[in-house]
Design a protein that fits this description.
This protein is an alpha/beta fold. It contains 13 helices and 13 strands. Helix 4 runs parallel beside helix 6.
């Protein structure tokens, strides 16, 4: 069950041009018609009527191709860019109505931000970079050291406290950026393509690190990426954007198995379906199954169960709450399910 809503984005617009505000006084027009009118009058709508909720402890991924508006949206959420219309509610309070002083305090104490550009201060050590926002918060030197030491341990940088950014690898620099944003103990964490500049192996390691940290801290997160496989690994729910608008919101499985349109189908078309299948989707009832088959949970990912299935040719029993038998995953049931899902997805993707 989802937690309570931490962040709510409602009817958010960001428009570039000489006078974007005048379009919102007219009222009545549908978003697409209003966006078309803006373009006709030499304005560029970068975010169009964007709306979604982020629940407490949820990783909400926004993804799309370059120019889709995803980075614009996350910058509007933090007011690094000022939206032209709409609401951004943090714990029910509109951030767009916050004064400059209130916004500074919110950023210092409630928000953490990590971007593709690590933004480390080259003349400061790892410890000093991480302590920098804590100094702005007014913590004592001892408090800064204690909290910095905690996040340094959390991201696995022990022993590098005295190193300067130039002495670190790209992955280590990104860890410093993550540790610095976590040091303020944010309630809400914004990450804008934080791993896209890293080599593939380091990127995978940083995704693993991110998932480990999130299991410990359970932050409310808005994560921007253009990589569906990355989103598939980390997202609880996700939104796909196109030309400034949100096309579909759902779990990664929802978007892959039930795309809203051809664009979403094409966007998700290259994802191997075995990465999204869960045990309950592949289970079949077996009246005469052998006793003592290994047990798995209904939401276990099939991809991670393949070695266990190989070691148990008779199958794996899917067991729900209280030990209730829900079915058995066998090699045959897996192949049948995979063929059905792959066939359905191919029928949705336009060819030619």
């Amino acid at each position: 069950m989802p937690g309570s809503v931490k962040l709510s984005c409602r009817n958010l617009w960001k428009v570039y041009g000489p006078d974007p505000g005048r379009f919102f006084h007219e009222g009545g027009a549908a978003p697409e018609a209003l966006a078309a009118k803006m373009r006709a009058e030499r304005h560029i709508p970068a975010a169009i009527d964007v709306g979604f909720d982020v629940h407490v402890g949820e990783t909400f991924v926004i993804m799309g191709l370059s120019g889709s508006g995803k980075s614009t949206v996350v910058r509007c959420l933090s007011r690094l860019i000022e939206p032209d219309h709409g609401q951004v509610l943090l714990d029910g309070k509109d951030l767009l109505a916050a004064s400059d002083h209130e916004l500074i305090e919110i950023r210092r104490h409630k928000m953490g931000m990590v971007f593709q550009n690590f933004g480390l201060l080259p003349h400061l050590t790892v410890l000093e970079n991480i302590s920098f926002p804590l100094r702005l918060q007014g913590l004592t030197a001892a408090q800064q050291r204690d909290r910095a030491a905690h996040v340094i341990d959390l991201v696995g940088l022990n022993g590098r406290e005295g190193s300067y950014p130039s002495q670190l690898s790209g992955g280590q620099q990104q860890r410093v950026g993550i540790a610095r944003s976590l040091a303020v103990e944010p309630e809400l964490w914004f990450l804008d393509e934080p791993f896209s500049a890293l080599d593939p192996l380091i990127r995978r390691q940083m995704q693993d690190e991110f998932l480990r940290i999130q299991r410990v801290l359970k932050k409310s997160i808005v994560f921007i990426t253009h990589d569906f496989l990355e989103a598939l690994r980390i997202a609880d729910r996700m939104a796909i954007m196109r030309d400034g608008r949100i096309v579909q919101i759902g779990t990664p499985e929802d978007l892959i198995l039930n795309p809203a349109d051809d664009y979403v189908a094409q966007f998700t078309g290259e994802v191997p379906r075995i990465k999204i299948l869960r045990a309950h989707q592949c289970a079949v009832a077996m009246a005469n199954r052998p006793d003592g088959l290994p047990q798995i949970g209904p939401d276990d990912r099939i991809e991670g169960l393949l070695p266990r299935l190989a070691a148990s040719p008779a199958g794996l029993d899917v067991v729900g709450p209280g030990g209730a038998y829900l079915g058995t995953v066998t090699a045959a049931s897996l192949v049948e399910t995979l063929g059905r899902v792959e066939g359905a997805s191919l029928s949705r993707v336009p060819h030619g």
